[in-house]
Design a protein that fits this description.
single chain; alpha/beta; Rossmann fold; six-stranded mixed sheet
Length: about 400
């Protein structure tokens, strides 16, 4: 007896499988390859750059025991090129819940969400939490679930642990969940403890924090004292930015004097920064992990007439932060790509609804590093967040 395994699930090979001539057929997923190839090509032509360099599409293993199961048989290659699913249309509704609004970062993300929805012909229902707080965002998500007509959820969870229950509830209600910018659990939806979200689309925030504080180290040299302005523990992205900055400090010889948490309040960040600079006049550098911390830090530096005396690296390219850069108050602004996050979030939701099972569990969206030398370059300036 010869056991035969074949690669590629053509109709002829499936005939051999059903006849008992072969024992196993390995089916690739060419429809996924084609769909994602076109979807990402269109995204690129629309100006969105954060496309995965590699998308593994996996396999289905077909045997006599499962070949007639519709969930497996759908991977059999067809010779009928007329079999094309129609577009989803306006009845397909994507719920979009950003981390907080108004916020230039999430306003810019919404532009990407709506651009993708317009390109793909689907509908977006956006609900904005007025505060970056899971106790505010969770009821909004619950209300979307209760509507009964939401087909996918694109959201930036406010807390990596506390946001799990409400997003699990959405998933249990049959709503695929895509997280953008922030994540739940450890963000590893392929191998981590939390696996139910379809994808996490966002920056490598450890890398971003490292880039910012490595730049400070380059300017200040070993032994310089720096200060970190953060939001609160438990937010996946800003936790990682702080981690990345501290790693750069340890690697490159900086001393982190203090970390303060501003609860996403620019006024509080300004007060904290002013107090720290008064108490520690030997601080020579600082890093702010998000827009509101950056705004407060920039204002405090301005008010203390310390522009140029304290090297400042800010996260998030709001128009205000770019103003501080141009004025010389800060040296470096790390721009994320929130429009890419939003656009690819909708692309992923629609691809999943069209039956594509190979959407990446993680899409990194990268950074643009903005300084006084490149801020007016159109290829860099396009990453400045818009407030309208």
């Amino acid at each position: 007896m010869v056991i035969v395994a074949l690669f590629d699930a053509s109709e002829e090979n499936i005939g051999y499988l059903k006849a008992g001539t072969v024992s196993l057929v390995i089916a690739q997923k060419p429809a996924d390859m084609g769909y994602l190839g076109i979807a990402y090509a269109v995204a690129y032509l629309d100006g969105y750059q954060s496309l995965p360099k590699r998308v593994p599409t996996g396999y289905a293993v077909l045997t006599k025991d499962n070949v007639d199961n519709p969930d497996d048989a759908k991977y059999i290659y067809t010779s009928n090129t007329a079999e094309v699913k129609p577009a989803l249309g306006k009845d397909f509704i994507v719920g979009f819940v950003p981390g907080v609004n108004p916020d230039p970062f999430y306003i810019t993300m919404a532009k990407g969400v709506n651009a993708a929805a317009g390109r793909l012909g689907v509908t977006v229902v956006q609900q904005d939490p007025p505060k970056f707080d899971v106790t505010v965002s969770a009821p909004i998500v619950e209300a979307l679930i209760a509507r009964g007509d939401i087909d996918a959820l694109v959201t930036a969870p406010n807390d990596k642990e506390q946001s799990i229950p409400v997003l699990q509830k959405a998933y249990d209600a049959g709503i695929p969940v895509i997280t953008v910018d922030t994540f739940i659990g450890d963000g590893d939806y392929a191998n981590g403890e939390i696996k139910f979200p379809l994808s996490y689309i966002g920056s490598d925030n450890v890398q971003g924090g490292y880039i910012a504080c490595a730049a400070l180290a380059e300017k200040l040299g070993k032994g310089a004292k720096i200060y970190i302005q953060n939001v609160r523990p438990g937010i996946s992205t800003t936790d990682q930015r702080e981690e990345g900055c501290k790693k750069a400090a340890a690697d490159l010889g900086l001393e982190v004097v203090r970390v303060d948490y501003n609860e996403n309040d620019a006024n509080k960040a300004q007060e904290q920064t002013a107090a720290v600079l008064t108490a520690n006049p030997d601080i020579k550098g600082m890093f702010a992990t998000n827009t509101f911390g950056a705004l407060g830090a920039g204002a405090a530096i301005d008010n203390a007439n310390l522009s140029g005396s304290v090297e400042v690296a800010l996260f998030d390219a709001s128009e205000e932060n770019i103003g501080y850069l141009k004025a010389g108050t800060v040296s470096l602004v790390i721009a994320q790509k929130p429009a890419d996050m939003g656009y690819l979030g909708v692309v992923t939701a629609v691809a999943n609804a069209r039956g594509v099972v190979s959407t990446p569990k993680r899409i990194g969206t990268g950074y643009a590093v903005i300084n006084a030398q490149n801020v007016d370059d159109p290829e860099i300036a396009k990453f400045i967040y818009k407030s309208n």
